[in-house]
Hints:
Layout: H1 4-13, H2 16-22, H3 25-32, E1 37-42, E2 44-46, E3 59-61, H4 62-75, E4 77-78, H5 81-88, E5 98-105, H6 108-121, E6 125-129, H7 141-150, E7 156-158, E8 165-167, H8 170-185, H9 189-200, H10 208-215, H11 220-228, E9 232-235, H12 248-266, E10 272-274, H13 285-293, E11 298-300, E12 306-307, E13 319-320, H14 327-335, H15 337-345
Helix pairs in contact: 1-15, 2-14, 3-14, 4-6, 7-8, 7-9
Zinc ion (ZN) binds next to strand 5.
Amino acid sequence: MISVKSTGAAIAKGALPYLCxxxxxxAAFRAARSKSLLVLTYHSVVRDQHYSxxxxxxxxxxxxxxxxxxxLARSCQPVSISDLADWWTxxxxxxxxPVLVTFDDGYMxxxxxxxxxxLGLGIPALFxxxxxxxxxxxxxxxxxxYWRVLHWPNATIPTPGAGIDRTVDPQGRALLAGSVREACKxxxxxxxxxxxxxxxxxxxxxxxxxxxxxxxxxxxDGVRRLKNKGFEIGSHTVEHPILTRISLDRVDHELRxxxxxxxxxxxxxxxxxxxxxxxxxxxxxxxxGRVQEAGYDFAFTTIGGFCSRNVxxxxxxxxxxxxxxxxxxxxxxxSGCYSLVKQYVG
Length: 346
Ligand SMILES: [Zn+2]
């Protein structure tokens, strides 16, 4: 039986963005929130020939990114972290329809692909980096798990937790990779590391060039080049553990060691932090308190996306932009309409 919720979700993803765009619903939503700061999250921006759509939660093609930034520059007023700080302390107001563009993890393609587009359109941005991955050839653990399950060469695949092997047909492989990745996010971090070690016992044959383009991290020289182009560098921890799955002592280490490394390397202050994964089960008031104690000025979640000045500055919401959005679906997201529909229909 088809539920009202699943039917509603299908409509929200399908026809609704077109209707909202052409019936003026998006515009009405944006007008109602003209004074709230919209914050967007991107991850990897890959050249079009390397965009397969498989990693669309974390990757967007350069062509789509350019189109989205052009729409953003036309419909909103991009602002910087310094503008945000001045707004927060009451020194200056933000313009109407303010938007802040952020990137998580620290991919080399942020410098080579995203930065030229941003500079060309005059859009400031915040890049939140995982310092333990900078200059490393390793893929981010969450994406490595996904990648290894997707390209697993054997008939049975170890799964996390109970360690049961499953046989999967190739069509179901992407679905399994996604569900394994999501299951791992809910486990204690050490358990994820043990599971990843098991996956690493089997060699994967894949395209080195594609992997490098999608998952390759910045080196410190690249981080400094972003800083010297006027972009803000924030922390996204050292090793990208989900902070509610580790001890508070390790949380302190992740917050402080990453901030220190960034400040030493860029010769400036690291004011911002982004929670790994950043959804509701991934943060807590105790952790937000530790972020403040570590000396950050602002911290970003992935909950919501429109911020007013009376919200907690250590739990600022962001909207994640996946790589598979049509132009209408993108406009639907940045209007806030999508979040409201999703809240009611799932
Ligand atoms: Zn991340």
